[in-house]
Amino acid sequence: MNNELNTEVEVIGSNDVMLVSKGDMASVDMMDKLENPDSKFFCSIVDDGSRASKVKIYNAINSAEEQLTDHLNETLEIVDVVAHPITLTDMNTGESKECLRTVLIDKDGKGYQAVSEGIISSLQKIFIIVGRPSWVDEPVLIKPKQVTTSNKFKVTTLELIG
After folding, report:
1. pTM score > 0.85 for this model?
2. So where are the chain's domains?
C-alpha cells in the first residue's frame, strides 16, 4: 500500500483548517465533473418531482449501507435498483479503472452495493424475465451467491427466488 496516499494533509481555507486524507483529495481536473455533471446512471426509483423523491434517489446513489457480499445466501426482497459509474484505483499499481456500482434497494429502503459484472449480468436477465423495476408492489426475492468460474475466479451472482 502506498503510504503517501494515506498521509493526512492540513488544508487551510479562508477561515478553516482541516485534516483530510491524501487518498480522499479531489484533483483539480475534477472541477469539470462538478461544473458539467454526467447524468449517466440507472435508477428505478420514481422521481415524482418532489424533494422527498429526489432525496431518496440521491441517498440510494450515494450511501448504500451494506455490501452485497456480506449477505451471501440470504434472501433479500428487492424493490429498486440503482447503477452508476465510479472510478476505482488499484492500491498496488495506482491504476484507475471505470466500473459500474450497483445498489439493490430492499422493501425497507436498505441499500446493498456491489461492483460486480456477475451482478450486472444477473440483473440484465432478471429485467428481461421479470420486468424492469420498480417492484414496490411485488418485491423480487433474490439470493446473492458466489460461484467459481472455469478460470477459478469467484463471481457474485443473484439467484432468483420469487
Report:
1. no
2. 1-37, 38-160
